[in-house]
Structures are given as structure tokens and as C-alpha cells.
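I hope you will forgive my troubling you with a question about protein structure. I should value your view on which stretches of the chain appear to form regular backbone elements. Here, with my thanks, is the record as I have it:
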Amino acid sequence: MKQQVRTFIAVEIDPQVRRAAADLVGRLSACRAGVKWVVADHLHLTLKFLGDVDIRDIAEVGRAVQAAASTAAAFDCTVAGTGAFPTLQRPRTVWLGVTEGADRLIALQDQIDRALKKIGYPAESRSFKPHLTIGRVKRPSRELAELTALLNEHADLQVGRTNVDHVTVFASELAPEGPTYHVLAAAPLGERR
């Protein structure tokens, strides 16, 4: 019998960025727009979502991510600005953006994508836009206009800098009260240049 592990690859963010993001979520949640907000401990920059992976393949995934990560030098990135996918007028996913360091995150994600493609995981079809998901809209409502206005007000918000010196392969266990994440593998980046 196969055992599946819901798996994703992400960059963990520094505690001060988590705190600043949690403060913003507190302000945004006042609008009651029917958004499920991400708790601060779960905030991360997702590089790739793999979905259900056979438990027997986790070690190979970890090795592929480690090989890809070792080719990139450690760097800092800046989390700043708010937005939503697909658009601010029709928000489904509420996020904080990445400004400085976005190009390096894109290159890192591409390296990981290519390494995982070699072992059978399809490459992403959409272009990667580095972001920190802070909420997901549960259902359309009238209050979404208020949420859009608040996101526009915080479009230039400076959240903080985070050190990117490793990538983490996570397992995600879903539960009614929210997901629980477990580290499956950590992949250090190379020395800063």
C-alpha cells in the first residue's frame, strides 16, 4: 500500500518579517471579507508545490532540492507591498510581495524546478512570482471592495528583510483547524558571494 505525503518546497522567513506580516493581517482582518488568514508560524515563500508524493520518493526529492540549492549563493530578500491573485478587484489569494532579491528567488525556483523535472515532477506552467501568501478568500462578498481598498493603502508597505540561506522540503498535513507542517529535508544554499 502506497503512503502519500503532501509535499512542498519553501523558503522560511525571519521572525521579524513574520511579526510584521502578522501585524498587517490583524489590520486587514478587521474588514470581515471572508478571508482565511495564514497564521504567522505558517508564513513562508513557496517555491514549488508537489502535491502527494509517495513516501518512498521523499529522499530522492530531498537530494534533488539539495543539489539545486547548493548551486545558488545565500542572499537576502525584501518583503514589501500587498497584492492579490488573480487581481486586486477579484482577490482569491492575498499576498505580500518580494522586491529586492526577487530575481534570485526566481532563479532558485527555476533551478529547483529543473532538478525535480529530471526525477519526474512536471515543471511549473505559470511563471513564478515570489510572494508570501497571507490569506485566501473563502467566498466572494461585498466586503471584498473594502479588502481591495486596504490592500491599495498598503501597496508600498515595507515589511522587512529575510535571509535566504536554505530551502526546506515540507510535509503538510491538512486538518479542519488548519495545516500542520513538518520538515522533511533542509537544503543549504552555497556561501554568499
